[in-house]
Amino acid sequence: MVKDKKVEYEPVIGLEIHAELKTKTKMFCACKNDPDERHPNVNICPICTGQPGTLPVINREAVAHVIKTGLALKSKIPEITKWDRKNYFYPDLPKGYQISQYDKPICLGGELDKIKITRVHLEEDTGRLVHFGHIGHSLVDFNRAGVPLMELVTEPDFTSGEEASAFAQELQLILRYLGVSDADMEKGQMRVEANLSLKPIGAKELGTKVEVKNLNSFKAVRDAIDFEIKRQTKILERDEKIVQQTYGWNESKGETVLQRTKEESHDYRYFPEPDLPPMITNTELVKEIEAGLPELPSGKRKRFKSEYGLADNQINILVNNKKLAGFFENVASELQELEEGDRKKIVVLSANYILGDFLGLLNEASAEVDDTRITAEDFAELIGLVHRGAITTSTAKEVLKEMWATGKDPSNIIDEKNLGQVQDVGELEKAASKIISENQTAAADYKKGKEASLQFLIGQVMRETRGKANPETISGILKKLLR
Fold first, then answer.
1. What is the pTM of this model?
2. Same domain, yes or no, for 402 and 436?
3. From CA 403, how far away is CA 65, in angstroms rounded?
4. pLDDT confidence of 426, banded at 50, 70, 90?
5. Which domain holds residue 179?
6. Which of 226, 272, 355, 406 is the most buried (most CB within 10 A)?
7. Distances (CA, A) of 247 to 190, 209, 255, 256, 264
8. Distance between CA atoms of 285 and 96, rounded to whole angstroms?
9. Is the dihedral of CA 71, 73, 76, 77 positive or negative?
């Protein structure tokens, strides 16, 4: 008897990503939008707390942010959009409904990293529940209620947690480059939800969808999706059915946890928001926003490769840190008077120092580029001194630390501390001769062909000259003396 062939399944995954927008005020009122406010229920008013008789007013800045995001993602901006009421009850939803967008969002379509985007729409955020287990109660903070919340919905184009996580990271970077959201996942400013189903490989009909909500880190996005793929696969292999439900992610246990039965769109009883008219898109505003779009991460990566010849790992670190990339470009601009051949070489040298010693100083101090006393002009001067051989690499490290501590320019530091490179050949030969006489065994070993012994002797001469000699020059002198 022939056994039935085991059915193999493939995942079909789509994402819904929410991002709190960086605006001065909330979505429909004049209350301050301050994610760092620590005191509860300070930035509230009758509108965002859902008091009877109040009317919402659309935040123009929030609308412009969504349009900007859509244009960056190659979305279409329809001429007319409208607002809808999404009805559901939850303790931190003061009105008992959320003003959102259903069938006529601000942005339609688009693409990012070959993943198709269904829509980008605008709504208001909920409040926040604060749980106090020791007193057995949960309290509500409405500071976040009414904050502009952008939602991006993708097509089900993902096949793994790794792909979904990479997409979310790139989107976060784009939102930061656009200046529309800080998208800090630890602060809840960006939240990811995954819709996932399995189907037999090659089948056209999709399986039953399960939603995993409120993933608050890129690791959680990857791990939750991968876990859910395994969980659903085991269910199907037992010839059981997947139930459409909503799950959360338990980080400590490394597993998804059932929360509730999944709602359908009709459960929310969407209907047009009666307090807000349909919104006609200002085409001049769209053109103005499009003309002002900044260079996006993908474009910056390509340019850093072609213009500066940086390595891929260097490019990724710089592009992922917008301020550091800006500092690097300012330094490169200061070095532009050099000839093209030398310029690329010296710019790569500057990148090495920025991503090595300079970034190390920033990390050690938990500081941002804006916090440093070192200017791009002074940093470029330091790189020029290294490039010309005026100071050694070890001296450059010492000078950079002093620049960090005092804000002084490198030339003054070198003069004050007498750190200039020793150029006198006679003085270097004298130091090399002394080291050879003190290390006869190493000298003999080099003559026998042991290159490591030469490196040892070079290090000793560098120490003798307090790091102010050029290692290549020392190497030549030692080889000459050891013939």
1. 0.85
2. no
3. 39
4. low
5. 9-290
6. 355
7. 18, 11, 10, 6, 15
8. 33
9. negative
